[in-house]
UniProtKB/TrEMBL annotation:
<dbReference type="InterPro" id="IPR051540">
    <property type="entry name" value="S-2-haloacid_dehalogenase"/>
</dbReference>
<comment type="similarity">
    <text>Belongs to the HAD-like hydrolase superfamily. S-2-haloalkanoic acid dehalogenase family.</text>
</comment>
<keyword id="KW-0378">Hydrolase</keyword>
<dbReference type="InterPro" id="IPR006328">
    <property type="entry name" value="2-HAD"/>
</dbReference>
<comment type="function">
    <text>Catalyzes the hydrolytic dehalogenation of small (S)-2-haloalkanoic acids to yield the corresponding (R)-2-hydroxyalkanoic acids.</text>
</comment>
<dbReference type="Pfam" id="PF00702">
    <property type="entry name" value="Hydrolase"/>
</dbReference>
<dbReference type="InterPro" id="IPR023214">
    <property type="entry name" value="HAD_sf"/>
</dbReference>
<dbReference type="InterPro" id="IPR023198">
    <property type="entry name" value="PGP-like_dom2"/>
</dbReference>
<dbReference type="InterPro" id="IPR006439">
    <property type="entry name" value="HAD-SF_hydro_IA"/>
</dbReference>
<protein>
    <recommendedName>
        <fullName>(S)-2-haloacid dehalogenase</fullName>
        <ecNumber>3.8.1.2</ecNumber>
    </recommendedName>
</protein>
<dbReference type="InterPro" id="IPR036412">
    <property type="entry name" value="HAD-like_sf"/>
</dbReference>
<dbReference type="GO" id="GO:0018784">
    <property type="term" value="F:(S)-2-haloacid dehalogenase activity"/>
</dbReference>
Length: 220
């Protein structure tokens, strides 16, 4: 079954959030993987805490703050790498299957969109760098509602803009917590379990689990 719109999370789903650290792996040293994982974990934690407090700041500010925290936790990493790492975040690599999958879905007549915590500027840069701007129809940023996922108002950006019922939207994310929020909202959800992680939030489970986006291009 095909859907009227296929909507994708950006970070971790289309774009590799660990690509920035990998580009500077030699300079960071042996703690690079742990450094990158902590940077990402704190980035998300800050978004959830600020949503609960009602104290929104955009995702770029959280990205910088969480990087500062990672440097404090890993004193072996040279703080002079802060600017190169942040610069790299504006041009993260997309996963190799992404262009073909998005193109295939678009050829089926579906709308292709991103729904992300990222700021508009961050997302525009990532999309252009990956040459996805000629495929993607719309980019929805949480900045429009000043709240982060999994606030229902975030997912409603898609249905309101497209004038669709939630059931007409297929939402893809590598983040299980994001899938839980989108499932609760009413989207058909596909968990892209790239890390082969255990399931959670089982009362709001995905419609489908895939190891990558590759199979999706056939409109499943």
């Amino acid at each position: 079954m095909s859907y009227a719109a296929y909507v994708f999370d950006a970070y971790g789903t289309l774009f590799d959030v660990h690509a920035a650290v990998r580009r500077h792996a030699e300079a960071i040293g042996p703690d690079g993987q742990a450094f990158s994982e902590l940077w990402r974990a704190k980035q998300l934690e800050y978004s959830w805490v600020r949503s609960l407090m009602g104290a929104y700041v955009d995702f770029w500010e959280l990205t910088e703050q969480s990087l500062d925290y990672a440097f404090q936790r890993f004193p072996s990493a040279d703080p002079k790498l802060k600017k190169p790492l942040l610069d790299a975040y504006w041009a993260l690599d997309c996963y190799p299957e992404v262009p073909a999958v998005l193109k295939g879905l678009k050829e089926l007549g579906a709308r292709i969109a991103i729904l992300s915590n990222g700021s508009p500027a961050m997302l525009a840069s990532a999309v252009k760098n990956a040459a996805l701007d000629i495929i993607i129809d719309d980019v929805f940023s949480v900045d429009a509602v000043k709240a982060f996922k999994t606030a229902p108002a975030v997912y409603d950006l898609v249905t309101t803009s497209y004038r669709l019922y939630p059931q007409a939207v297929s939402f893809q994310s590598s983040n299980r917590w994001d899938i839980a929020g989108a499932t609760k909202f009413g989207f058909r959800t596909v968990w892209i379990n790239r890390a082969d992680g255990p399931d959670e939030y089982k009362d709001h489970g995905p419609s489908l689990i895939l190891p990558s986006l590759e199979s999706l291009q056939f409109g499943i």
